[in-house]
Amino acid sequence: MIDVVIDALVREFKTDLAPARFLGAVAGRVLDAGGGPVTMEALIDIIVDDRASAVRSAVRSSLTRWDAEGAAEWTAATAPQTDGRRTLIYTLLGIPEVAFEALTAAFPIAGGPTVIAAPQPWEPWYVPERRVAQNFYWSAYRRVLAAKGWEPEVITGLDVATTAVVQRLADPTRDEPYQSKGLVVGHVQSGKTANFTGVIAKAIDAGYRLVIVLTGTIELLRSQTQRRLDMELIGMQNIDDAEYENDEDWHAGRFLDHVLDPNHSNEAPAIRRLTGRVDDYQALAKGIGTLHYEFADHSRPLFDPVNLYPSNVRVAVVKKNAAVLRKLVADVGRIPTPLEQIPTLIIDDEADQASVNTQNPKNFAAGRIERTAINEQISRLLDTLKRSQYIGYTATPFANVFVDPDDSVNIFPNDFIVSLDRPEKYMGGADFHDADQLDDGVEKTPANSNEKAFVRDLRAQSDEDRTAEMRRALDSFVLAGAIKLYRQGRGVPGDFRHHTMLVHESVKQAEHKALADDFEMVWKRAGYSQPHGLARLENLWDDDFRRVSAVRADPSTASPASFGELEVFIGAACDRIGSGVSPVIVVNGAADKDYIQEPLDFQEHPVWKILVGGTKLSRGFTVEGLTTTYYTRRTAQADTLMQMGRWFGFRPGYRDLVRLFIGREVPGPGGRIVDMYEAFEAVVADEEEFRDELRRFKGVNEAGEPMVTPRDVPPMVFQRLPWLRPTATNKMYNAELSYRSVGGQSFSFTMQAPRGDGSYNATHFAAVRPLLDALDGSGEFSFIDKDSTSRMFHARYGIVDAAVVLETITRFVWDANWDFEPHRRAFESAMKRGALEDMAILLPIPKTKKPATIGDYPTELPLVNRKREEADYRTGFTGTAVRERDAIEHIAGNPSKLVGGRLADALRSPTRGAMILLFASDPPKGSRHFKSHRRGRADPRDVATLFSYALPYLADPSPKVGFTVRKEGAGAIVDA
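Request: output the structure for the sequence above.
Response:
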């Protein structure tokens, strides 16, 4: 009978409608099957039981959707993803309050995408009832994802994220046209295409009848996107068989086969493709009738539901080429159907590339905006199609948020910005860098350091050294390929069809051929079938791959016990890589024909090759099976640098085999030497800070108004590298952050100016002496460690008047590219409002550190190790006190951080903030002076003073930011 109960529960929770009581329905099915009475208590026990996996999956999916719901009436003004919303859900389900805690522990509230949105001029329209009534293409896409092996929870996450986008578009049946413009921010190589495919599916179901997808600037990417949409959304019934007659997946039945043919059914619209696998948009000429929409009732407009739902959909996948777009714009202008009646969705993939208007506003004639060629065509589409909605997709949004928001037909995301969560099993920038500082004396290993596991340095100073580094990269590629074949043969789940290596050293096409020749020569001399080559691979296995896989491979992933087990697969890997004309493919060229070459067609056959290229492989195009990267190219824009991170992505079955060979001493302008690994680390940190800021300030304030709107986002972009701008200068828009406060949350003030001669350090130490003099107590505080265990730390502490603290921190000197003013204003405002009276100052005392005398200060003080970023790459420090900040957030009254222990609770006061002080050894670069403090004394010039603080929670219980208006004629907000 338990099977009947489980089946009944799954049925009740597989719904897209509102939460409703389920006990009666389940009990009825059990009685019908001959069972006895069913109690809610028994059902709750089953729901939280790990063994009832089908029930847990269905319940988790429903709770995730209900938690995120933003349009349904049943939500009763509760905010998404809050305790209040979850309590309402349980109540509507008829669950007694006594079970709430157990259910929330079993099914925690999921975060969901971060949404920054302006108020919408309409009532919610994309409600559950409408989503259920029209869902043909979304249901089809959901089946495709399930068939590809996506977990139900992941599909639900995509459902939530795509609904968050579609509900912010205008209702396609709305009488008055409205153009909604938004931006969806993903991660590099993280599945943005899956998101916009889902958005297109739902938009078609909702009534959008013209879909234009703008891809990158090359045919390679356009063709890849077209095939993806054909295969997973448009479906076989809407495609001519001849177009994919040579495609392996078409013949294997992997293309979507709809449950009914929309060309011969009134239940769903058919899709008319205006572009094909190898055909970009062509002027229709006499065939303009292709764009003539079908009407059921000519007395009504197309957007009337009577006409809209039966009419067919037109889809064009177009690369961002001015000539191609001009053809499209011209044909759109000739559509027989009144243009103002056509609900249109424009998806702009890689929206920060080519779409942004980069003309200098200072050169505009009075009252006239000059545009770049591609931006002009996009603007014409928006101007012509009054019901068009624009959604930009990018992993590097900085150019888009700097667009002029007052340009009515430009692409600034006036209505919404959606930041997608990092997907599960995604390997991104943070996975190649070490965010956490290791304790003193702890050696970096592949187990505790991402750098040790996945990153290999390129530091060659001679041709001989360079050849050796190239050979080691090739050895890693071959060895990883052999391990993939080993795992494939043992049935390890994963994607082993493709195996590629990316070589990216220059953007200049003339240099690619020479680089390819160099790698081919090293390949020919590597001797992989000879004893010396195999011996080299065995050493690489023992020294590198064996050790990394032992601690980084999924526990269920098989790895060879010895090199002997692997040796038989090395020849097979080399045969695949060396097949055809050459193991190396050059991917570049001024003409599309240079890219469309059989060896690089990931769709038609497996690709095991070394790819040498530049810009063409650094924007949007997915390099399938990428495992080894050899990278030394420098760039001056953070977004460009991030897009070059092709080594980011999903690596099912071979995550532990990924290796990044990266230049650590790359020549830069002015004779400067650039560490590209450090540069990526800085960009990753800046990007995460930007996303964190969006998360902090999403949602609404006490008055029900958005805390920030898309217009307020540009100043949240921070630049840490003096030479690395967030985006190109001609894409940046002026704005200024004037106030920033989050009550009860700590902020680490690490952005100090370069060390220089140490005088800033001396100034900072002198400034905090009054705080040190007030440390008259000591005791134990608590924090929650990374393993969720509560641990203790000892600290000296004291209470200092807020005015004294403000005077102290105002004396600090900050990096030229970072502004302390918004924080100072928030601090001062809290004081003036009486919300901040004093601060608890904590000085942690490490157990293993011997204290030192700093200058002439009479009391010995602890010195810790904190990494100063080199001025050539990034100023400031890597962090202050990450773990200990739990204590100051407790003291500051953060209700979600009451974990600092009894002493923190005793120090807590409604008008008290809290600060952590640290002193870090900071000698001149290359100096040995850091050893002097171990002898008991340190020069204040060689000691950096670091701090984090949290304002009282009640000072600003909801995050608050303030902005100044755009200044006429002002320059970019970042001016390096």
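The chain has a mean pLDDT of 85.
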